[in-house]
Amino acid sequence: MKNDVAIALIGAGSALTGAVIGGTAAVVAASKTARSAYLGSLDSIRRTAQREVYADLLRAAHTYEAGTGAVLESAGFLLDGLLSEQEGLPRRPSSSERSAFRRAISSAANPEPVAAAARQVELEGPSRVAAAARSVRAAAQHLSTTLNSIEDADEGIRPATSADLPREHFELLKSAISTFAETARKHLNHR
Fold this sequence. Notes:
This protein is mostly helical. It has helices spanning about 1-85, 95-110, 110-125, 125-155, 165-190.
């Protein structure tokens, strides 16, 4: 009888231990599954938010690129006229044409929408995408400074801009936009 009781107690203890171990494993597995589902939905929401701010920056940058690209020829005319005047030659564009060129350049050379969109990307990250966004913002700012320096030069200040600099800064902007788009795409498509 003693053996039967001992066997029964050992069996009950083993069953209880097995149940505790099995129950713990089930709870841990369920917890991991729930955590994974929760984090998966958070990751999806975060990627959606990132995609939206990345797209906003690309829209702002492409709009800025199109606007400044449209006034590059006008900037060239103003610079050529300034350089001709410095050499003692008459200016080719008339005063009213120069005023129209300056207005168009001033209107197109506002990088603030690009800067605002870039700041949003910096908030969403990650760091490599934020760095690419800062490059777009810096390129837009450089182009703006270059284009606006033509207007300053046209008001009597010696031009600090070579005739090729607006086009060079425009090309740098295009390159920065392409790099940003590629970096953002790689981040969004990475799992």
